């Protein structure tokens, strides 16, 4: 029972939010506020081609005409979009970005976060141990990307999107905005106008990416929004697994994180996208924390293509996030595994959309929500079947667990079947932590918090199993920490 | 407070469009842009005694919105009411409001029929129903309306502590038909069973929408809706169960299961749970699919023609809802009514 022991240790050893430290990094800002000049400023900073600037300006124009959505079941102080910094980058010395030249202060931040940025460090493990290529994004820029050369040997492109815009403009231009159009929603339009960095991945036909790719996002500067943009393209018959992690310092103010992630899977390609979201959730009184308004969508445009989303949502003050799959290819499949844990005053409105457009496409949704304290959690999902998409199958399971008298948990699924050959199943349950089980665990010598962590880990196990191993361990610890102090 | 929008047939601005979340799948404004001309209100003779005539009871009838007798009823003891909502109009509109309350300890059976004899009419029927402490009310609704009618039925039901409410709505749809029930559930032993059934052919649409709001502790709700859609029919189910803060000990279950037996049929479902209390048991299940191919194969192998096998399986699928009606006489009337329409 190593896992159980680890959970217990984690509960005992860790404080509420271990990534809450701030780092004093010399930072360069764009002027506060948002207007067309700021968009031009960001584009110029990145040395982008002219078409990209036009694309951004068009997005900015669209955004100005749009209204912030209010349908989600979350309440928050409105964001003053003119009171934010849209670009913050650690000042760097001249020269190429070899690891040795990266600001040691920055490296220290990542060391503190436990992110391996040194290739040799990763290699130092046992032979055959899984390796991770990391793209580290600090506020608005990518500071370092590891294993680039080794990936290049097999033709995999893994680099910051700002660099990809310079080195592979044709690829970026072909796919950027093709999954999440500029005017898709308010936050996507805002992101399209001001996004500063993020990862770009291209896996050539038939290539199985030799290692896990990961991006680590860190918001450091205060009063700054982070707008990252990730674009992953898996060409015919390729495979890749991508991990995303995120943290932010503890600050009294609410910070905005509005990302867009686009995945494209061509014929027979597979993308596995895992997220452990641990943004700062705010303090016990609900002050501060990240607003996480994210648009994530996968386009399974190839036949037999597959995309699997796995997310562990433990952080953020407010989450608004629906990783979705457009299942266009025949026999394409989409999966969504989610754990959403809310405590304190956190609010999460999250779920998925499975849009079945291709014949015999399949989807599977497993969503687990745990609400504690004064938090509120909503699963909102859509399964829709197009009239021409025959032979579609879907299975959805949403389970919610409530801990405490003041939290809320809601399930809002939409099911739209437009032809007679679809087979759709949905089930949802809401219960509280069983007194009997808690009593049993405590009787066996576990403290109340250990017992809660154990039971909750059991509750979310179906989803944890879908995570890559390293992430699963981290996620399991997070589950325990997030629920600290939720009982009694 | 009503969670669902209030509609006034005389005021076109009160007609919700699909942008109103609760009307997302039934765009009233698309079908009805202007307030309809009022239906003739002169006394129109009623034909027959309605599908439930054989069960006796007092009639409470409305023709084109006009009450033939009383429009308010207070029940005590054991009573049966045949609530008949008759539309004999052509391309005009009418609205009714009926108020029924069951006093403490009463046992009331409401046999409600929506009888459409005209065409292209717009009917708006409101029912306010009060179920007092320890009263038991059973409401059975049979909706039989022409394929070009627009019909909206809105029932607001209040179930007092210890009260029991049983509802079964059976419909064959219309051009746009909405059968809405909003229950304020005061718990403390109160028990609600709310079932629905739709069987749709042609281009008919039926929308069964309900909200059950558990405002106090120890209430139970059980909901089962089943539907069969053929041709280009469209079935909509929206069920919302709310458990408010403090409504501990609530046990709520909801199921919606639909069969689409054609290529162009459509089913839209939105089963919602909104929960603010932790000591609760809530679950919902939703399935949409086709008939079990193995069962069909087995039946054909046993010598049943395919059509008959299909009909048998479809009936067996739907009849579960009818079987849950406790009143034997009403159950048999509904069974015959349904079988004749399958």
Q: What is the total number of structural domains of chain A? A: 1
Average predicted confidence as pLDDT of chain A = 84
Number of domains of chain B: 1
Helix content of chain B: 10-25%
Structural class estimated from helices and strands of chain A: alpha/beta
How many helix segments of chain A? 13
Radius of gyration of chain B: 20 Å
Largest interface: A-B, 34 and 36 residues
Helix content of chain A: 10-25%
- Basic shape of chain A: globular
* Helix and strand composition category of chain B: mainly beta
**What is the CA-based Rg of chain A, rounded?**
22 Å
H/E topology pattern of chain B: HEEEEEEEEEEEEEEEEEEHHH
Main sheet of chain A, how many strands, which sense, barrel?
Answer: 10 strands, mixed
Strand fraction of chain A: 25-35%
- Quantity of strands of chain A, as a count: 24
Cα-to-Cα separation, first versus last residue of chain A: 26 Å
* Helix count, DSSP H or I runs of 4 or more residues of chain B: 4
| Averaged pLDDT of chain B | 94
Low-pLDDT windows of residues of chain B = none
Principal-axes geometry of chain B comes out as: globular
Protein name (chain B): Fe-S cluster assembly protein SufD
Pfam family, one (chain B): SUFBD_core
InterPro entries (chain B): Fe-S_cluster_assembly_SufBD, SUF_FeS_clus_asmbl_SufBD_core, SUF_FeS_clus_asmbl_SufBD_sf, SUF_FeS_clus_asmbl_SufD
GO biological process, one term (chain A): iron-sulfur cluster assembly
């Amino acid at each position: 029972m190593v896992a159980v022991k680890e959970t217990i240790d984690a509960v005992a050893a860790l404080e509420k939010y271990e990534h809450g430290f701030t780092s004093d990094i010399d930072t360069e800002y764009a002027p506060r506020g948002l207007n067309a000049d700021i968009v031009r400023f960001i584009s110029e900073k990145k040395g982008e081609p002219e078409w990209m600037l036009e694309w951004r300006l068009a997005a900015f124009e669209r955004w100005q005409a749009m209204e912030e959505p209010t349908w989600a079941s979350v309440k928050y102080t409105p964001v003053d979009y003119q009171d934010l910094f849209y670009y913050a980058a650690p000042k760097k010395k001249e020269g190429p970005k070899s690891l040795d030249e990266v600001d040691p202060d920055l490296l220290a931040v990542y060391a503190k976060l436990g992110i391996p940025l040194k290739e040799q460090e990763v290699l130092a493990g046992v032979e055959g141990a899984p390796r991770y290529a990391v793209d580290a994004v600090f506020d608005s820029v990518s500071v370092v990307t590891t294993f680039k050369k080794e990936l290049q040997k097999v033709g995999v492109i893994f680099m910051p999107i700002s660099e990809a815009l310079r080195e592979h403009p044709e690829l970026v231009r072909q796919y950027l905005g093709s999954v999440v159009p500029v005017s898709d929603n308010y936050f996507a339009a805002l992101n399209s106008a001001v996004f500063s960095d993020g990862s770009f991945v291209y896996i050539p036909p038939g290539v199985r990416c030799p290692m896990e790719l990961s991006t680590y996002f860190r918001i450091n500067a205060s009063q700054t929004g982070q707008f990252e943009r990730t674009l992953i393209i898996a060409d015919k018959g390729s495979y890749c697994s991508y991990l995303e992690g995120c943290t932010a310092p503890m600050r009294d103010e609410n910070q905005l994180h509005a990302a867009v992630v686009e995945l494209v899977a061509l014929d027979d390609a597979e993308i596995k996208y895992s997220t452990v979201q641990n943004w700062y959730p705010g303090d016990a009184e609900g002050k501060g924390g990240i607003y996480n308004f994210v648009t994530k969508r996968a386009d399974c445009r190839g036949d037999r293509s597959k995309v699997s989303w796995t997310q562990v949502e433990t952080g953020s003050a407010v989450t608004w996030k629906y990783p979705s799959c457009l299942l266009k290819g025949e026999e394409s499949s989409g999966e969504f595994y989610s754990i959403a844990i809310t405590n304190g005053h956190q609010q999460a409105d999250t779920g998925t959309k499975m849009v079945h457009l291709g014949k015999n496409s399949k989807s599977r949704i497993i969503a687990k929500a745990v609400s504690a304290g004064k938090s509120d959690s909503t699963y909102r999902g859509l399964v829709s079947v197009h009239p021409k998409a025959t032979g579609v199958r879907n299975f959805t399971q949403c389970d919610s667990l409530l801990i405490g008298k003041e939290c809320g948990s809601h399930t809002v699924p939409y099911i739209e079947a437009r032809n007679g050959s679809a087979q759709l199943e949905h089930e949802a349950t809401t219960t509280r932590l069983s007194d009997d089980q808690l009593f049993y665990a405590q009787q066996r010598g576990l403290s109340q918090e250990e017992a809660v962590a154990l039971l909750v880990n059991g509750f979310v196990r179906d989803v944890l199993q879908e995570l890559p191993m390293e992430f699963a361990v981290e996620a399991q610890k997070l589950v325990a920490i997030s629920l600290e102090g939720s009982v009694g | 407070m009503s969670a669902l929008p209030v509609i006034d047939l005389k005021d076109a601005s009160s007609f919700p469009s699909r942008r109103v979340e609760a009307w997302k799948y039934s765009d009233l404004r698309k079908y009805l842009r202007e307030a309809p001309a009022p239906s003739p209100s002169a006394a129109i003779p009623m034909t027959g005694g309605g599908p439930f005539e054989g069960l006796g009871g007092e009639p409470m009838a409305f023709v084109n919105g006009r009450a033939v007798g009383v429009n308010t009823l207070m029940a005590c003891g054991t009573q049966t009411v045949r609530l008949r909502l008759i539309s004999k109009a052509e391309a005009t509109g009418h609205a009714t409001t009926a108020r029924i309350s069951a006093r403490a300890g009463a046992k009331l059976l409401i046999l409600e029929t929506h009888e459409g004899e005209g065409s292209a009419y717009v009917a708006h029927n409101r029912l306010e129903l009060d179920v007092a402490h320890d009263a038991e009310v059973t409401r059975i609704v049979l909706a039989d309306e022409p394929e070009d009618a627009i019909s909206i039925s809105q029932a607001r039901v209040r179930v007092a502590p210890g009260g029991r409410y049983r509802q079964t709505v059976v419909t064959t749809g219309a051009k746009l038909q909405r059968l809405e029930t909003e229950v304020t559930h005061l718990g403390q032993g109160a028990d609600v069973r709310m079932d629905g059934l739709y069987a749709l052919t042609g281009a008919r649409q039926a929308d069964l929408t309900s909200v059950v709001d558990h405002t106090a502790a120890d209430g139970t709700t059980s909901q089962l809706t089943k539907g069969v859609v053929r041709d280009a029919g469209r079935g909509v189910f929206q069920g919302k169960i709310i458990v408010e803060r403090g409504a501990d000990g609530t046990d709520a279950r909801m199921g919606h299961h639909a069969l689409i037996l054609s290529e162009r049929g459509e089913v839209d479902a939105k089963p919602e749970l909104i929960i603010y209390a932790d000591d609760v048991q809530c679950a919902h299940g939703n399935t949409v699919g086709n008939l079990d191919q193995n069962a069909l194969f087995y039946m054909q192998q046993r010598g049943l023609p395919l059509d008959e096998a299909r009909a048998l399986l479809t009936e067996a699928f739907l009849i579960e809802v009818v079987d849950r009606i406790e009143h034997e006489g009403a159950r048999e009337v509904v069974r015959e009514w349904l079988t004749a329409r399958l």
